Amino acid sequence: MSAPPAAAPLLTANPSRRLIAIDALRGLVILFMLLDHVRETFFLHRQVGDPMDVATTEPALFFSRTLAHVCAPVFIFLTGLSAYLYGEKHSGRAAVAAFLFKRGLFLVLLELTVINFAWTFQFPPTVIYLQVIWAIGISMLALSALVWLPRSALLALGLVIVAGHNLLDPLHFPQGHALHGLWAVLHDRGWLVWDETLRLRTSYPVLPWIGVIALGYAAGPWFGKTARAQQRLTRLATSVGVLATVFIAMRWLNGYGEKPWQAGADGLQTLMSLLNITKYPPSLLFLCLTLALGLALLMLLERQQGRRAVQWLALLGGAPMFFYILHLYVLKLLYLAALAMFGQNQGGYFGFDHMYQVWLATVALGIALYPAAAWFARLKARRRDIAWLKYL
User: Fold this and answer.
1) How many Å from the N-terminal Cα to the C-terminal Cα in the chain?
2) Mean pLDDT, residues 64-70
3) Distances in whole angstroms, Cα of residue 211 to Cα of each of 99, 111, 143, 198, 371
4) Which of 61, 149, 169, 179 is the most buried (most CB within 10 A)?
5) Computed from CA positions of residues 296, 31, 250, 164, in that sequence, does the dihedral angle turn out positive or negative?
6) Residue 324 CB neighbours (<10 A)
7) Mean predicted lDDT score pLDDT of the chain
8) Residue 128's beta-bridge partner residues?
9) Given pLDDT bands bounded at 50, 70 and 90, which one contains residue 265?
C-alpha cells in the first residue's frame, strides 16, 4: 500500500490539520466496521446478543464486537461536526439545512434499496432492516431543523436526549397501538408491518442518535477556521475526561439504562461484564464510553497527522459511503462464492472456525479495497463540479 501523493487536494486544503484528523478518524472506524461486518458474514454461526452473554462469548469475539461499538457514535457525531464545517464554508445555516435535508432523504432511500439489497439479495424484499445509514439519514433530517436553534440550546437539547432517553425505557406500545410505529422508530427496537409481504425492522431507533448528531454540530466551532489547535485539544481532552468519569461512576453504581455488571471468575470476565453495554438503542453509558474513545482517538490522530498511516486513514475516510456500499457487496459475493465452493460447514452457514481468521480476512479485505476507496476519495476532492459526488 503506497502513501497518497503529497499534493492530493483532499489533504492539502488549508487549514488541513483538523480536517485530516476528522477524515482519519472516519477511516479508522471504517476499518472497525469492516471487522464487524466480516464477523457478521463469516462468523454468523456464533451470533452475539445485545448486550452479549459474557458467560458464553469468548474474549476474542467479545472485544471484536465491543470495538465495533465505536463506529456508529463516531460516524454520527462526525456527521454533525461536518455539517457545521459545511455551513462555515457555504455561508450559513440555510445552506446547511438544505444540504442536510437532501442528503438525509438520500441516505434513507439508499438504506431502503441499495444497502438492504446488499444484506439480503432479495428483490422484491420481504424484510427491510433500518440500520445505521437509516439512523444517520433520519438524524440529518432532524438536524436540518435543529440548526436554527442557538448553539447553546442545541447543545442543551443534545445533552438532554443523550442523558435522559433511558428514562423512557419502560415505555412500550404493542402492535396495533396508534403509537407503536412512531415509538419503534424513535426508541423501541421492533417490527413494522407494511403489508402481508413486507416487514421493516427498526434496528437503530433514532432518538438517541439525534442527540449525538446535535452534540457533533455543537462541537463544530472547536474545528472552525479561526479555532486554535491547542484550545481544541484541551476541549477534547476535557470532554474525554467528563465522559469517562460519567461512565465509570454510573457503571460502578450499577444502574440507569443497563443491566448490572457482575464480578467474574477472573479480572478478564469482570472487565467484560463492565463493558457489556446496550447499543439498541444506545444507552447513556454506551455513548459515554464510545464517544470518549472516539474523541481520544481524534486527539491522537490530530497530534500524529503528519504520519503516513494517518494520511492513509484520511484518504480512506474521504469516501465513507462509497466504501460502505462497496464492502457490503464484496462481502456478500465472497460469502456466496465460499458457500458454492465449500458448502455449509457451520450448521446452516459457511463460516470460519476461529476469530483470528476473521481478523486476517479483515486485513486482507481492507488492503484489497483500499485502492478503490482512495481513487474515489481523490476523484471526489478533485471534481467538486460534480455535485452528486458529495453525497457519497
Assistant:
1) 23
2) 97
3) 19, 21, 9, 30, 35
4) 61
5) positive
6) 21
7) 92
8) 200
9) confident
Which three-class secondary structure string do you get for the chain? CCCCCCCCHHHHCCCCHHHHHHHHHHHHHHHHHHHHHHHHHHCHHHCCCCCCCCCCCCHHHHHHHHHHCCHHHHHHHHHHHHHHHHHHHCCCHHHHHHHHHHHHHHHHHHHHHHHHHHHHCCCCCCEEECCHHHHHHHHHHHHHHHCCCCHHHHHHHHHHHHHHHHHHCCCCCCCCCCCHHHHHHHCCCCEEEEECCEEEECCCCCHHHHHHHHHHHHCHHHHCCCCCHHHHHHHHHHHHHHHHHHHHHHHHHCCCCCCCCCCCCCHHHHHHHHCCCCCCCCCHHHHHHHHHHHHHHHHHHHHCCCCHHHHHHHHHHCCHHHHHHHHHHHHHHHHHHHHHHHCCCECCECCCCCHHHHHHHHHHHHHHHHHHHHHHHHHHHHCCCCHHHHHC
Contact 378, 8 (CB under 8 A): yes
Mean pLDDT value across residues 65-81? 97
**Would you say residue 14 has pLDDT above 50?**
no
State if pTM tops 0.90.
Answer: yes
Beta bridge partners of 127: 199
Which pLDDT tens digit goes with each residue over 47-56?
Answer: 898 999 998 9
Residue 344 corresponds to which cell in the numbers above? 455449509
And the C-alpha cell for 141? 433530517
| pLDDT (0 to 100) of residue 62 | 97
* Residues sharing a CB contact under 8 Å with residue 308, sequence separation 6 or more, in sequence order: 3
Q: Are 313 and 300 in contact (CB under 8 A)?
A: no
Residue keyed to cell 484489497:
368
Q: How far apart are CA 287 and CA 159, in angstroms?
A: 11
Evaluate the CA torsion angle 32, 37, 39, 40 in order and state its sign: positive
Residue with cell 432518538: 207
Nearest residue to 324 via CA among 107, 144, 123: 107
How large is the average pLDDT for residues 237-250? 97
200 DSSP β-pair partners: 128, 192
Position 53 scores a pLDDT of: 92
Task: Give the per-residue pLDDT at 13.
Answer: 36
| Type of residue numbered 392 | L
- pLDDT score of 337: 97
What percentage of the chain reaches a pLDDT higher than 70? 95
Q: Quick check: 72 and 209 in contact, CB under 8 A? A: yes
